[in-house]
Amino acid sequence: MSGYPSPHLPADGHAPVPPPPGGYAEVPPPPGGYAQIPPGGSPPPAAPAPRRKGRLALIIGAVVVLLLVVGVGLWFLFRAPPIPDPEPAAEQLAAALQEGKPAGVPLAMETSASPDEQYAQVFEQLLATVGEDAGTVQVKSVTPVEEGDGGTATATATLAWSWPVATKEAWEYETVAQLTYPGATDGEAGQWEAGWSTGVLVPGLEAGERLAVERTEPARGDIVTPTGETIVGMTPVHRVGIDKTRPGWETAAEQLGRVLKFDQATTDRIAAQVAAAGDKAFIDVITIRDNDSEYDFEGAMAINGVVGIPDELSLARDRDFARPLLGTVGEATAEIVEESKGTIKPGDMVGLSGLQAAHDEQLRGVPGLAVTIEPAEPAEGAEPAEGGEGGESREAFTIDKKDGEPLTITLDPATQVRAEAALADLDDLASAIVAIKPSTGEVLAAASGPGSEGYSTATLGQYAPGSTFKIATSLAMLRSGITPDSPLPCTESIDVEGRTFQNVPGYPASATGDAVPFRTVFANSCNTAFISQHQNISQQQLHDAGAALGLGVEAKAFGAGAAMGDVPAEAAATEHAASMIGQGKVLATPLAMATVAASVSAGHTVSPRLVEPSGGKAADKAPAGDLTTEEAATLRDLMGGVVQEGSATVLRDVPGIVGAKTGTAQFGDGSKAHVWMLAMTDDLAAVVFIEEGELGSTTAGPVMHEFLTGS
């Protein structure tokens, strides 16, 4: 094809512009024909195309676009705001209801009544029962929005209410609030409103109705023995007091003081309370058991202004029976109410001390509670509702009361009474007797004398045990290789790093010497002989020996507050020497020393037990320490010598006596001493403690004899 132009290409060889669809149009020649182009010349310039129509099209297009933009802007400017989400409005309503101020949120009202006042009236009694801040209100759900005419909408909120009306139980229910959206106003979005009615507060509650709350007090559990004998039970009493609404109250305090034999200070205190009380007050003065011969109840009732209100209280068999140990019951203090976190209400009867306080939850039980909807009172002049003047109450929520459960304790009433009788004359000194049954660890008596002034010296009073601790020292010595026949030096005095120790005044000269058998040293309680071994027996060994006998070991099975003494594991030289004879920093309670005697008697470490496990659980009777049978037998033999030839011969005539140990522990400037005596009979281990006395043998010994023999 070289040398010839393509029939489809122009002469210059460039690709032609493709023809329009349908082929090339025939273009007529211009007037005058086609211009002739001279060879090698250029075509004449083309005539300019018309431009007016193109500009007009551009202007029209721009105007159309502008109008569209303006239209869209005006639509956005004047369109109705979208319907807001109703969920925040429901949350605000729930928060306002929980706060007790529903009027704080937009409400759709059909009444002129104040929502806040209605709330207060409906829940007045419930709030008094559970506390002002106890109830909770939460949004459970909100239905999807339903749009109406003119931009309006509706939704429904379900509210979940919870009132903690009992320790482990709450009154829970749901209410429904109708939410309405009124639409926009002047281009501004409207607010959701909650339709208000008392049914928003409680399901089905009608206008004017309110809640009533009634608590049913449970019966307090008794304190009983393992055989079922009642030690503490509900007892009829009269609350005797002065009623300021009665004539004659002005002089009642003085007269009552004389009739009931109060001292003048007590009478003056009562008179001051009466004067300070309100015009309609009742001032409690004393609670008197029915048929209590100690007080002239009939004489008190004859006084103008004095009233006796019948009641029942949880009381022991006698006024003073084991009082420091058992404790008392009375109205809850403000501190107890606060610490209970809603469990206990003002006016509730609770344990205030001793076992009553330690086991209050078990003994107190759970109150019953009934929440009822009370009908509205008819308006003045209106006809009463059918069925009664104010209609009928209907139940909203009920909890059945749960009476308290009995508490079983090991105390033996006869043994306790005998212990208290033996201490009865110790009016000015703290004193105690504790008795344990070695075979079981049961505490049969824990008596604190009148001089303890209501304090449980028996279980909590900690003092230096003096020579009664020599039982533990002897165990440490036995473990070091000393036998009952080993000779020990019992001299008049011994010096340890500048401190001189002596025997108690009146120590028998016949039991002194450079080589006195250990059994004789123990029987007569030679201080110098025990201290002579302080370099052979470490303080740690003393600590371990005490623990083997139950001293200084937590009494986990006791079931009440108790102290078990302390034997330090470390001590300086002179302090360690003092520890050998139960002084220095060694401490013990009567309960702890009774446990020592019980462990020796039982042949293994005893853990004392006062409260029987509840719920059918068996008591753990396994030995708690490492005292061996052989060690205990040797200690019993040594303690038997104390009765036969030593410092406890006052007990020789006690039936079944096995052994004993006396103790005298100087305190203060050394001129005073705590006195002790431990004793073991067939299956009884006991201790007598008196805060101050001459010697364990002369002061505590006779009291022990009276306790063991009943005379």
UniProtKB/TrEMBL annotation:
Its main location: membrane. The keyword Transmembrane helix applies. The chain crosses the membrane at residues 56-78. The keyword Signal applies. It is found in: Membrane. Residues 432-707 form the Penicillin-binding protein transpeptidase domain. Its EC number is 3.5.2.6. It catalyses: a beta-lactam + H2O = a substituted beta-amino acid. Keywords: Antibiotic resistance, Hydrolase, Membrane, Signal, Transmembrane, Transmembrane helix. Residues 216-370 form the Penicillin-binding protein dimerisation domain. InterPro entries: Beta-lactam/transpept (IPR050515), Beta-lactam/transpept-like (IPR012338), Beta-lactam_class-D_AS (IPR002137), PBP_dimer (IPR005311), PBP_dimer_sf (IPR036138), PCN-bd_Tpept (IPR001460). Residues 1-51, 378-398 are annotated as: Disordered. Pfam families: PBP_dimer (PF03717), Transpeptidase (PF00905). SUPFAM superfamilies: beta-lactamase/transpeptidase-like (SSF56601), Penicillin binding protein dimerisation domain (SSF56519). Gene3D superfamilies: DD-peptidase/beta-lactamase superfamily, Penicillin-binding protein 2a (Domain 2), Penicillin-binding protein 2a, domain 3. It comes from the Bacteria. It is an enzyme of class 3 (hydrolase). Residues 16-32 have a biased composition (Pro residues). Belongs to the class-D beta-lactamase family. Belongs to the transpeptidase family. This is Beta-lactamase. It comes from Promicromonospora alba.
